[in-house]
Specification:
The protein is α+β, with helices and mostly antiparallel strands and about 725 residues long. Helix content is about 35%, strand content about 15%. The strands form five sheets. A seven-stranded antiparallel sheet has the order 7-17-16-9-14-13-12, with no helix packed on it. A six-stranded antiparallel sheet has the order 8-19-18-15-10-11, with helices on one face. The chain has a four-stranded parallel sheet with strand order 20-6-21-22, with no helix packed on it. α9 packs parallel to α10 and α20 packs antiparallel against α21.
Amino acid sequence: MVHRLDPLVLRHAHRIPRPAGPAGEGAVAAQQFDAALMSVGFKLSAELLEHLSGLSGSAVVDTAVRTLGTVREMVGDHVQHNAYFIDFPANVPNTFDFWMQCIAEALADDDARVSTLEQLSAGVVNLLTLPSYGNYRHTYAEMLTHHDELIAAAGDRMTVLHLGAAPEDELTSLYLALAGSTTPLGEDGLRDLRDLAGHCTDGPQPAEIPVRENRAVVNAARLKAGASLLLDTVTDVLRLACALAGGDVGLQEPTRLRGLSRPVRRALLAGLDAVVGAAPAQLADVHAHREVWKRLGERLHPHEYPQWPYAADVFAVARGEKAVRTFDSRVEELHAQLDPTGAAELLKAAPGKLLRSLDRLLRSAHTEDERDAVASAAEQAVPDASGRVLLSVREHLHNRAQETGEQRVFVNRSGRAWVTEDTRPPVFAPERKRMIAAIDAELRRRVPAADHLLIDPDVLDVALPLSGKATAPGFGVLPRGSVSRVDGELLRFFVYWKQTARSTDYDLSAALLDTDYSTVSWLSYTNLTEIGGKHSGDITDAPQGASEFIDLRLDGVRATCILPQVNIYSGEGFEEVAESSFGFMLREAEQEGRPFEPRTVRMKSDLRGPGRVALPLAFLRGSDGRWRAKWLNLCLTGSPSHNRVEENRVTVATLMRAVVEREQLTVRYLIELMTGSATTVTVWDGKTLPAGPVTYLGLERPEKLHPGSRIVTPENLRDLIPA
């Protein structure tokens, strides 16, 4: 059971739980393991290599088998990435010439000749009807014979795997970190927490579970183990019911509730009764999810349990049989009366809501005295609000310095983005600056103290992960809004998908944008070669899996922005396919190799979300001529079918302007808060490490840090978000 969960530790922490086994002469096997890892861009730390060398060869092999499968999947090397053009990126034909070749081959095909002639006579030919278009004409093995071995380069990625603690200790540590996270987890994080919660029910528990979705997952495991439930709101019970049904504990997507056993019904009703009995005002929260409560009532049968009358009140409110006035309705009534100071005074009972309503309250205040009263109420609420709310409001206020007429971008929990003109009046500068100062002071008080900060400068522009939903699941992925360096001469994108039941066509494309984000040109199946770039060819069906690639020489790109995107042309969506992912590689000009080389993969993310166009990240050329990646993790609704890069130009230009010009709170901001008069700050040069313990912040953990050091990388950056 423990070994089954080892991959969670490897993915989240880049550590291998301390392998156990009989002592022996495992040095040769350990070296072979290290060499196998290096072929996919990973390696063993010196400490881990030494530990494995002291075990028996069979123990090392067992560890290697478990580890190699996980790391290969992390970077996308667990599948075969074939290319339509067998020599890609060499010998990619001109688009028109290629289409003419496909037509000529169709005319030579007895089965396709008649329909092709009919189409030619009509003046329009459907490429999908041509037998040589859209399907591999060679095997993966045949493709490999056309490519030399990858030439190693100093810039190849090498991710170090470190020696962890005992497996049970590692699992407990990861469970406590995920369950006690101060920010919401993404879909994959919640899934991992669900596995860990079931395993760690009898072990140490977090002192607090501030995120309600996490609490629902933990409660589901506790209920199955017969442990007491952690409930203090009626919505906690509703989330728990959704967790038991395998649904959305965030209550954003419909959940098909299941029939519940009598013991489970009794536990949920008893929990509801205790919550409402202790705080009858909780009944007001039922209105937010009335329909779900009605469906849950049909499965709990509250009328069969007269000993819990307060629980029955919940369903009476949901059915409209019992009237309860909500807190939000009282606030809205004051807004309708044009009384922002009264609304602010009432909202002091809910500090988080008050701060999230601050922009509206300040805009509604028409006099200096009213604005002062609103700001005073907000200042009083600051110490009682969560760190995540404070950081969100701080970022919002920073971006409200602009005048009206700017673009306003909205992103929902699933990453779907849309833009509209910002018609809101500005927030007056005195109150805006006053609230920023109050929030900064409170956050400075809450951030963890550090005597010695060791900073990798590459981490400074990583956006703070205020929600796991802003970071796509995958390897090397940073939170939305982060900026990172791009070092390399060749930039290669890849997409892989495998359909479940229906023929499915994903199209990898790249838009090349100017300084005003207008489209200069693009690379796609309709434009195979363009200004330093090449497309690997269009695959239109993926029953066994399919890949497409785009290769770009960065010094040949005559644009200031490169925007890769994955368009669903037909078939199954990102949530329906068996598997789909996007990533990018960086290479030097002299490197050869296969179209897909795991050592050069810098990022690989799963494609998720309800949209039909995925925008993982953008590459921006700075005034210094250097390229940097801006992480988007967004999707567009698109059309049900036939999405193409050419048709997204206006939407993309508007979205890019709004997203790129919005400033995020980054690690740099947190470091400024953490830096006090007694704090030593060292910028790491990649070579020399301090002798004593430090708090290290960087993209990857260096070897040979003092064992008493605290290590913060993107994998656990959420730990720095104050509670």
